[in-house]
Design brief:
The protein is of the alpha/beta class. Helices cover 43% and strands 20% of the residues. Helix 2 packs parallel to helix 3.
Length: 123
């Protein structure tokens, strides 16, 4: 079973995302900030990370940079899911190692289309 780490400081966003990913066949873990996500990733690298940008303690971008430095840290597919939609943020995320970028608010169709695009589920 594929694993997903959902990283967002909003409990509601984590809950909604978890329902979508579990319906797509993923085992899910959650973290409310980048530091907790990094601790979880150090224990066990997920296959997929849905990552918010703006969080307390450690931002999504800081987490992504730290993740990519871990042994095997280039492996997880990371999709930023944020309200930051200007080209500067998108380029910065991609340069730091993000695989894709989606905007909030999202729904099951948006997540599913990214999972299909990235080869995690079949259409």
């Amino acid at each position: 079973m594929k694993s997903c780490l959902i990283v967002d400081d909003s409990r509601v966003i984590r809950k909604v995302a978890r329902q979508i990913f579990e319906a797509a066949g993923f085992a899910c873990e959650e973290a409310e900030d980048g530091q907790k996500a990094l601790l979880a990733s150090e224990k066990s690298l997920p296959d997929f990370v849905l990552l918010d940008w703006n969080m307390p303690v450690m931002s999504g971008l800081e987490y992504l940079k730290a993740l990519r430095q871990l042994p095997g840290g280039m492996g997880p597919v990371v999709v930023f899911c944020t309200t930051e939609n200007d080209m500067k943020h998108i380029q910065e995320a991609l340069m730091a190692g993000a695989n894709e970028y989606i905007m909030k608010p999202f729904d099951a169709d948006i997540i599913r289309s990214k999972l299909i695009q990235l080869g995690f589920v079949e259409s």
